[in-house]
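anyone seen this seq b4? input:
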Amino acid sequence: MKSRFWLIFLLGVLLGGCGSPTPPAPTVTAALPTAAPTTDFAAPKSVGAAFLAAWERAAYAEMHSLLAPSLQAGLSLADFEQAYQTALESTTALTVTTQPQQLTIEDNQAWITFETTWETALFGNLQSSNQLNLLREAGQWWINWQRSTIWPELAEGNNFVLEYQVPPRANIYARDGAGLAIPSSIVTVGVIPGEIQDEAVLLSTLVPILGMTGEEIRAEYAGQPAHWFIPLSDISGEKSLAYDAALSLPGIERRESPGRLYPLDGVGSHITGWISPIPADAASAYRQLGYRRDAQVGIAGLEAWGEDILAGQNGGRLYLVGPEGDYLQGIAERRPAQGRALHTTLDREWQQQIEQLLGNQQGAVVALDVQSGALRALVSGPGFDNNIFIRPTAAWQRQTILTDPTRPLLNRATQGAYPLGSVFKIVTMAAGLESGNAAPTTPFYCPGYWDGLGVANRKGCWLTSGHGNINLKQGLISSCDVVFYELGKRLDYADPEILPTYGRAFGFGKATGLPELSEAEGLMPSPEWKQATYFEGWATGDAVNLAIGQGFLLVTPLQVSQMLAAVANGGTLYRPYLVAKIGANNTHPEQITAPQAVGQLPISAAHLEVIKEALWDVTRTPSGTASHRFQGLEIPVAGKTGTAQAPGETALPHAWFAGYFPADAPEIALVVLVENSGEGSVIAAPLFRQIVEAYYGLPLTPLPESP
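predicted toks r here
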């Protein structure tokens, strides 16, 4: 949408022409051929060709230099250029091409007829027949320029008028039809200092309404002229109406303008995004699409992804008026195309509840329909109120957000890349089973540590006392690190490509294909990648680290949810999506998004069933790492804890819990990540439970006290 179109138009030289006999009589040439012009001031055809060629290149200084000296003295380059720029702006012209026709010479005057084609953003091609006048001064030919040279009817005093017809921006809706982005009035609340009667009352009234302190409010109008309107803050039309009586105090004034509203203080702000004035570096691209200079366009999220859908297409009417503004004639007209609404897959109420449960923690929650890939919730924390990007008086809030070290604008659900920790053991187990290097009952022994790479490289299990004798399925249930260290080593000895290959097949190391939002690819390390990146060979230790979701591995919460959804539904990887339906308008029918399978997990139904049983046992058997967190929950849940080491010697690990529910008839895959917070079973699993309870409208189980 923000691409640039660079067009070069070449004009032919006017060739031919001969002198006139005495007595003088007009000489007319045939249609003029085209070739690269070389200006010869002794030949009118060469001067005319140079002028028209320069016009096509918008080389106004070059054009101005070809005007008769007597004209140049009275018409500055700035005024000359402005005449052309105004015409281009008024017609939405992107390019002008010319086609010279005939040359006529009579004494010291000459005329070149030519055709012009104006390629416009709004009206297509506009064409006109015109005449270029020349005169001879001091033995040289020059352009005898008039405003009608631009367009025949642009005689002195006549002007183009463009009336835009801008369709209202379409809405964005949640799954239940509730608005996520809707039209609303914006009310700027301000004061007129000279009309304040009781400052104390005024300040005490405005503080709770505007969310500013009395000192902040007073500082805005202190020292300002008494009769000026001093804007303080913007509120919605609904809020203005609710506080109508309070905001009618002497000295308070409200000014209303049409705007956009993101309800509930911007629920789903990372998804919805926001609109803002056209950025300077995109002005040219939007102009080519027929936008007004003062248009508001989508900058992020669905507002940006669906810009052409939501905005529709501008229409307009182009006509000529006389010096007094009287209508002369119509030139072109185009009807607008209405914007089309976006109907998302989001459950707005659940989304809002999850945002409140995550609070200001840095992390992410993703909820995916396991049978389609439809995103039911996508939360990134900390969040922000996207309304601040459309409120003219919220500059300080925008600056606060932009400089916040917690990076609230980052969509951690799709763009955050993290080590996955023990959740990756699902992939390692699948690789072991399918490659024939392990069976569900393959025995292991865990003394609390593992010396498989030598005593000098001893690795500990999270359970320092050890799990004792344990098989592979039990190892997943209890998340025994020793089991998966050993399995990673065996897989690497069999073939170093096995584990990376399964990781990619389970959706890691590549984007999920979510159409509407940008996403990180993450990183699935492999022998080839390590050699290309570090110029080092792959070591067995790399495979051992990868087997427990550590080492170089980086994943997004969205990728993890896609994997868990595939596990839950029997092995199909679906492309996640946010827009369920695009509404109809006067030119397009309704468009419904169909689920799209993008892959199949490389695992047999029997082996997948073993993994699913183990994931359910994580939450329901005494040896499960999260069983104590789900006791008493009437909804069966399957899942896997993850505690991923984060960079930094003193950094707390990232807490994961990834699963699906109901475990016996899966509907939703749910992934919870809380950055640098502690263990998955302590931090993420209890939050996962609360989110499930919120989904079913159950009372929320209190979170455990911080350790």
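The CA atoms of residues 175 and 345 lie 5 Å apart. The domain at 421-696 is CATH 3.40.710.10 (Beta-lactamase). kinda curious what u guys think
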